[in-house]
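Sharing a chain and its predicted structure for anyone who wants a worked example. Both blocks are below, sequence first, C-alpha cells second.
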Amino acid sequence: MQDNGSRPLALVTGASSGIGADLARELARHGHDVVITARREPELEALAAELRTLGARATVVAKDLSVPGAARSLAAELETRGLRLDVLVNNAGFGDVGAFVREDPDRIDAMLQLNMSALAALTRAVLPGMVERRRGRIMFVASTAAFQPGPNMATYCATKAFVLSLGEAIARELRGTGVTVTTLCPGATHTGFATESGAESLPLFRSGLIPKMSSAEVARAGYEAMMRGKPVIVTGLANKFVAFSGQVFPRAVVFAVAKLILGEDSAPH
C-alpha cells in the first residue's frame, strides 16, 4: 500500500461547493492532503488547484454517489490506488421541498441513496482499517433538521435523522478504539443548498429574523469539533435552541415551529 507521507489524508464527499468545499479548505490549511469527490468535475478541479496553493496534495475523483454502488466503487478505487484514509468527511447530500405525495419518486430514491446509503457504505468500507490502525476521524454532515420531523421537507428531514442516529451510535461503539465519529448539524447556511432544493422561498431562508451562518463558519466549527472527537456539534446558538426544542417540546409545539420555518404544503384532499 502506498504511503501517504507525513501528511494525513482526508476524503471529502460533496466537495464541489458550500460546506464540503470549505471543509476541504480547513483540512488543507491544517496539514491534510485531500481527496475530493462530487459530480461536477470542473468545480472539483478548480478547488484542487486552490488546495494545492495551501500545500496540500489534492486528488479529484468525480463520482455521482446517488447512483447505487457508487460509494463502494469509490472506496475500492481509493484502495486500488493505495490511498489510505485518516479522515472521512461524509458531506454529500441534497434536499427537496413540498408535500411528500407530490415529490418525484426518482428524486426520493436518489436522496435516500446519497444522504443515507452512500454515507453508510463509505463509512463501513473505511472503518475497519481505521480501527486496525487505532486512529481515524469521521464526520457525518447532518442538519438541525435531524432533530424533528419536517412537514414540507419530510424525506430530507428523515434522512438527516438517520445520519444523526447512525453517527451517535457508531461514535458510542468506537469508544476506546482511537477512532471518532462527529456529526455536524448546521442550520440555515449560505450555500447553494436552498436554490438546489427549492427552499429559497421558505421562511427559514427568506426571513431576515432567522440567523444564517456562512459555510466557512460552519466548516471551521465542524473541523474543530471533529479534531476534539466531539460526537455531535450543532452550530450557532439559535440552532442549538431548535435542536433542543425538537427533543423536549410536545409534538404540537414542534410542528408549529416547523410550519413557521418550513412553511406548509399540504397534500390535496
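Comments welcome. The CA atoms of residues 19 and 162 lie 20 Å apart.
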